[in-house]
Design brief:
Blueprint (H helix, E strand, L loop, with lengths): L2 H23 L3 H22 L5 H10 L3 H19 L3 H6 L1 H29 L6 H11 L4 H7 L7 H32 L8 H30 L5 H22 L3 H20 L2 H28 L12 H25 L9 H7 L5 H8 L7 H30 L2
Length: 416
């Protein structure tokens, strides 16, 4: 089956499921896609149990297995979605909340990683399951960052005060890049502890973290400036859209080649073009065309991504015997999120004011999404992968469906 045929199936299903949701369920678009795709997947699983000879699940799973979820998202779709999200972010609002965003994205993510890793290691031990601490930490690293795609999608259905919106958007955009770097480091240590080749020490870890994070930021700034200079002085919508598209694809490919943080590069480049570039290098007519293109791109890729999250249950069905651990992991992840948000904000409260209910909203709006699933699928084939994957998927589904559907009422009651 060709790549075009697979893409046609995914886009076709996204449109069909989106229509069903809009016509009958009336859920937020992305959440509706997840719910309908999940129900469809469960129906296929039940049909296979009732009539194994039909082999429906095997045929559908065969198609899904041809899609490398990690490769598709982390080395493709994510670059466009992060750029689109950053393009529409207000740099002045982010700058006003820079210390809050930086603290939550860096210190908060690290706190959450160790809190979740330590708690799950304790849970596994109490259950009599042999699960090394370092692999519990791997789970903590991949589940701690909030998903910018899921979080930014909230703003399309939930009205949030500007200052709180800036904090939520900034944290999700930046802690994704930080989280991926932390995950890379922890996995390298875990692989080394399993007896495979690894030269990780404190200096190497610090160098890797600095190179990926700071190097990605420098690359993103340079790419954004080059794109800005290319668009300055011209007024041609189609060409300027093409320049932004080339900027994303070339920069992300270069980041992967140089082993820099592609997500951080995309966020910085998107912020530069969306603020400085829009103000000084585009006419109003061109700005409208560029923003409309990236809004449409974001909507299409979001639809396909959330469809895949719902369908991915067919691929990881073999790992379901570990799913009950997800029921324990959900409150653990929420508790770690609460501590990693409330502690930094309590410290920053001396110098910065926060809206009533802001802490509660920031805790509950910390959605996990496709990035966590993609990172779990990228793990090497070790005995702990199936457990991590099933727990991750359970937490992600709870986050998208339960937290995503209830956040609007929470904001209305706690903040507005």
């Amino acid at each position: 089956m060709s790549i075009f045929t697979i893409a046609a199936i995914l886009v076709g299903l996204s449109a069909f499921f989106g229509y069903l949701n809009h016509r009958y369920l009336h859920l937020p678009h992305t959440i509706g896609l997840v719910v309908i795709a999940l129900v469809a997947s469960l129906i296929i699983i039940v049909a296979d149990l009732i009539s194994p000879a039909l082999n429906i699940g095997r045929d559908v799973t065969g198609i899904l297995r041809k899609i490398d979820f990690n490769e598709t998202l982390m080395h493709g779709m994510l670059s466009f979605m992060l750029f689109a999200g950053a393009l529409h972010a207000d740099m002045s609002a982010l700058k006003a909340r820079r210390w809050t965003i930086t603290t939550m994205a860096c210190i908060g993510t690290m706190m959450s990683t160790f809190l979740i890793g330590g708690a799950m290691w304790f849970v596994f031990g109490m259950a009599g399951v042999n699960f090394p601490f370092i692999w519990a930490l791997v789970f903590g690293a991949l589940i701690s960052p909030t998903d910018p795609v899921a979080v930014l999608g909230l703003f399309k259905t939930v009205k949030v005060p500007d200052t709180l919106k800036a904090t939520m958007a900034g944290e999700s955009l930046f802690n994704d890049g930080i989280g991926v770097v932390v995950f890379t480091v922890v996995v390298a240590i875990a692989v080394g502890s399993a007896g495979q080749s690894s030269d990780m020490d404190a200096v190497t870890i610090a160098k890797l973290f600095f190179t990926e994070a700071v190097g990605g930021a420098v690359l993103g700034f340079a790419a954004g400036y080059i794109g800005y200079r290319a668009m300055h002085g011209i007024n041609e919508i189609s060409l300027e859209v093409l320049i932004t598209l080339a900027l994303v694809m070339v920069t992300y490919s270069l980041a992967l080649f140089l082993h820099l943080s592609g997500p951080i590069a995309m966020v910085i480049a998107g912020l530069f073009i969306g603020n400085h570039g829009v103000k000084y290098a585009m006419s109003d007519h061109t700005r409208e065309g560029v923003e409309q293109f990236w809004t449409l791109m974001d909507e299409i890729l979001n639809s396909v991504l959330f469809l895949l999250i719902g369908l991915e249950v067919l691929v990881i069905a073999d790992s379901f015997e570990h799913l009950w651990f997800a029921l324990i992991a959900i409150p653990v992840v929420l508790a770690a999120r609460a501590l990693s948000v409330s502690v930094p904000l309590a410290i920053l409260a001396r110098w910065q004011n926060f809206k009533k209910g802001a802490v509660l909203v920031l805790i509950w709006s910390g959605l996990r999404g496709g990035i966590a699933v993609a990172l779990a699928l990228s793990l090497p084939e070790v005995e702990y992968k199936a457990t991590i994957l099933s727990i991750t998927y359970g937490v992600v589904l709870f986050s998208i469906i339960v937290q995503g559907l209830s956040i609007k009422k929470l904001v209305e009651r706690a903040v507005l």
